Amino acid sequence: MTMKAIGDIASHRLTQEQLACEFSDVAPLLDATAAAAAASRCHYCFDAPCVQACPTQIDIPGFIRKIGNGNLKGAAVDILSANPLGGMCARVCPTEILCEGSCVRNHRDDEPVKIGALQRHATDWAMAKGEPLFKRAPETGRRIAIVGAGPAGLSCAYRVALAGHRAVILDAREKPGGLNEYGIAAYKTVEDYAQREIEWLYSIGGIEIKTGVSLGRDFTLEELRKQYDAVFIAFGLAGVRELALEGESLDGVMNAVDFIEQVRHADDLASVPVGRRVVVIGGGNTAVDACVQSRKLGATSVTMAYRRGVGNMSATWAEREFAQTNGVTIVTHAKPVQLIGDDGRVTGVAFERDAERFVIEADMVLKAIGQTLVPVGIDKELLTLDGGRIVTDENRQTTLPKVWAGGDCATHEGLDLTVQAVQDGKLAAASIDASFELTAIKAA
């Protein structure tokens, strides 16, 4: 929907200075003194539980020890060798349920080591220095097509390029980055960080990107299989689930992911429409991001409504607390049954809890109930799907020869997180590289 379709708009309520403050970095960079102090709290555990909790298996005690010794380059090498998008993951990872949640210091009388902040300290230093940390292997002549420039695709491209192959990324959007560029709250990744990180990835060499092209419209999977030595599918989940309720087409009702994208790419935050009374339907991180950004833009009241209990929410406890700290009201066990309107515009949402029906007034409703695979360009007879995801093995190889898949569009262990998508890209790249070696052995 267009911005003009939203009803009671609260744009221009805040001054440019206020908006700049609201959307400043939510977790500012540690200085050298703070980083040294944070690093000194690490016990450098053998068989550290924090490492086991990290999907990309970063040597966390190792990089923290190096920070404590003043060796930021070594720390960055440890991080980025395991996670080429380590800077973004330091900003958006739910560390409270991953590495920091597993820290041995994480108990009632203590607090975990600030692993995420320390990871960002080292990777930001590396990005600022711009020094090469890794050397690409000699050219192999192999070419890999990567469909999608999100975290999984970028990770795979970087790892196959590092191995000496050439990666060609094909993406439907104008900018690469996927979720990192279009789907994360603006206050989490300030100063165009997603694109700066991508430029660092490109610096390894051997990576080409073509934007504005999509599978099924500009090329087919079969064409890619013939033209390239391997194909990695990582186009994410482009579809958005609908509520399928009366009133869903009213002005003022829109998808939360579209709203987040508007905020991310607005030249002037004061021009982004937001209701005075906003209701966000959903219980995940997208819902939290939409809620908090609504408040930061000037909404008077923001309600996050979820149909189940807090324990069923995919948003972590830290995200929920952050939302509440920013003035968001969380209503649970609220099943939406109708979107109410007047003269074509939304005025409220009717919910049911047990046998009770109640209405929350709203002039803007954001839907954040999940995303789905749009299987355009995928032949279901050749590529197996399960539950709306592309089926892969533990190496992210699909049922179709020469084709791998990863990220949110594919089946995998763990949650749908940026860090998991990065790991999927790594696993696929290693499997693709190994398949080339196996082919060479058979040929010999």
TrEMBL record:
The lineage of its organism: Bacteria, Pseudomonadati, Pseudomonadota, Betaproteobacteria, Burkholderiales. Pfam families: Fer4_20 (PF14691), Pyr_redox_2 (PF07992). It comes from Caballeronia ptereochthonis. InterPro entries: DPD_II, FAD/NAD-bd_sf, FAD/NAD-binding_dom, Helical_ferredxn. It comes from the Bacteria. Residues 22-130 form the Dihydroprymidine dehydrogenase domain. This is Oxidoreductase. One of its GO terms (molecular function) is oxidoreductase activity. Residues 143-425 form the FAD/NAD(P)-binding domain.
